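Researcher: I'd like a structural prediction for the single chain below. Treat it as a standalone chain; there are no partners to consider.
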Amino acid sequence: MELFLDCMPCMHRQVLEAARTATTDEACQARIMDRVALTLARREEFASAPAMAQAMHAIVRTETGVPDPYEAVKRRDLEAALSLESLLWEFADGADDPLRTALKVAATGNVMDSAIYSNLDIAACITEELERPFARCDLAELTADLATARRVLVLGDNTGETVFDKVLLAALAAGGRELVYAVRERPIINDATLAEAREAGVDAYATLVSSGSAAPGTILEDCTPEFRELFRDADVVISKGQGNFESLSAPGRPVYLLLKAKCALVARRLGTDVGDYVLIRRDLD
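Model: Treating it as a single chain, here is the predicted structure.
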């Protein structure tokens, strides 16, 4: 998905938050934002918002010397998600449509994003969000593809939602399918890396791999050859969250987009409304 002018103020605000999270030194914060302004002026060099975000957050790490500014935020989110785990399994247990319900649980994990829910009662939000139906759910297509699938690749997103994704992985494991769960190569914002995914317990349900991309998404050109082969050859690919959707381009295969549309640009591209949950089968280009 291309980079829009409307993305600029959002990313500027996000990087300012990252700078203030990483350091209290206002002079350092100012240097970061000066460099960020120059990066924004080079917007035509970036194919997507996650690609630009990767460059901008690298500035924060370089200027502050802090390799993972969101380490404490991710720990808070993971602890919050783990405290909700019994609620998630209870919601999914005994559902009339187990796969649809597991997909909804995984999609609901998308609201664990700290930038949006940092000041809200997470448990209350999750309880309410779990009850919201999909605005669009291409379940028939996914069910048909899963019927013959031997390997399913799930592209993970933020740290908190890895706990939610375990419910989906358990549902996908039916029929002896091989499950692979991909995360970021290095810390970027509050996205999951191998360390957070293991701490969440995802490795009990799927083989964990790094995509090789350190962007808040999956930029295939930056991924390892091994991951690109895995992405190409998997029978089913499920892409979690906006960042993966925004960064994937011309993958040459169908991908299931599982997310909550959090901004007007993404909602318009998906043909839905802001706040809607969707599972959409799409040949991305």
